[in-house]
Design brief:
Layout lengths: L5 H19 L1 H16 L4 E5 L3 H6 L11 E3 L14 H6 L5 H7 L8 E5 L6 H12 L3 E6 L3 H4 L16 E4 L9 E3 L2 E5 L3 H22 L15 H11 L9
Parallel strand pairs: 1-2, 1-3, 3-4, 4-5
Antiparallel strand pairs: 6-7
Helix pairs in contact: 1-8, 2-8, 5-6
InterPro entries: RpiR-like_SIS (IPR035472), SIS_dom (IPR001347), SIS_dom_sf (IPR046348), SIS_GmhA/DiaA_subfam (IPR050099), UPF0309 (IPR022951)
Pfam families: SIS_2
GO molecular function, one term: carbohydrate derivative binding
């Protein structure tokens, strides 16, 4: 660890990762934003899924000021966030074969929709099967993952494959295996994870691309405003009424 303060080191590490995304993932971000814009223009619905802490980036897209109103959370009980008790149960559920099928069978996902699947490692059964089964339904799948895990870890799915192997598009978050940016001579484990910061920024870049792509086609993007600005609630009520058949978090 250098003499620089750890706070500065972490922020510098996050900035470095964001610069890599800007420079190395520009084409993938553009393609993902275009795919979402195509889905909106064609009458499809948008969904996001993530397990554990990967769910934080998914939740950040839903009912979000400045975000697309059509983005819905595909929730799996006991897997979204760390509210399940005991917390390690959520990690165990990610490894359960067949859970993705049960979730999709009871979800509103249908052909023509788009699904963002966020999994840092992409190695567990749940995200792998979610991608496989969603594509079989005719859903376009965008995987958000760290591709490095595929070469440095073993898949936990029976097929030996990873999330990245079952997507229409893959966004590589560039996060190192283990998700910790800092080390210290007197601390036995690496620390300071950056995946939430980086993945959220990556996805907001995709949302910005989708919104501007729609606007460039002469389609007003269905954006939400902050409820804490004057007129925000009225604006959101109009948008949600206009797209009520494609929004599931208000039912």
């Amino acid at each position: 660890m250098s003499d620089r303060a750890p706070a500065g080191q972490f922020i510098d590490a996050a900035i470095g990762l964001l610069r890599r995304l800007r420079d190395e993932e520009a084409d993938s971000i553009a393609a993902a934003g275009t795919l979402l814009a195509d889905t909106v223009a064609d009458g499809g619905r948008l969904f996001a899924f993530g397990a554990g802490h990967s769910s934080l980036a998914a939740q950040d897209l839903v009912y979000r000021a400045g975000g697309l109103a059509l983005m819905n959370l595909l929730a799996v009980p006991g897997v979204v966030g760390v509210d399940v008790m005991p917390a390690p149960l959520g990690s165990a559920l990610e490894r359960v074969d067949g859970l993705a099928s049960a979730v999709l069978d009871s979800s509103p996902l249908r052909e023509g929709d788009a699904l963002l699947i966020i999994s840092l490692s992409g190695r567990n059964a749940l995200p792998v099967e979610m991608a496989m089964n969603a594509r079989a339904l005719g859903v376009k799948v965008i995987g958000v993952t760290s591709v490095a895990y595929a070469s440095e870890t073993k898949s936990r799915h029976a097929s030996g494959t990873y999330l990245k192997d079952h997507c229409d598009l893959v966004l590589d978050s560039k996060i190192a295996v283990g998700d910790a940016e800092l080390t210290h001579d007197d601390i036995p484990a690496p620390f300071a994870p950056a995946s939430t910061v980086v993945t959220s920024a990556l996805l907001q870049a995709v949302m910005a691309t989708a919104a501007t792509t729609l606007a460039d086609r002469g389609i007003e993007p269905p954006l939400l405003r902050s409820g804490n600005v004057d007129g925000g609630h009225d604006w959101n009520a109009r948008v949600m009424e206009q797209y009520r058949d494609r929004i599931f978090y208000r039912h």
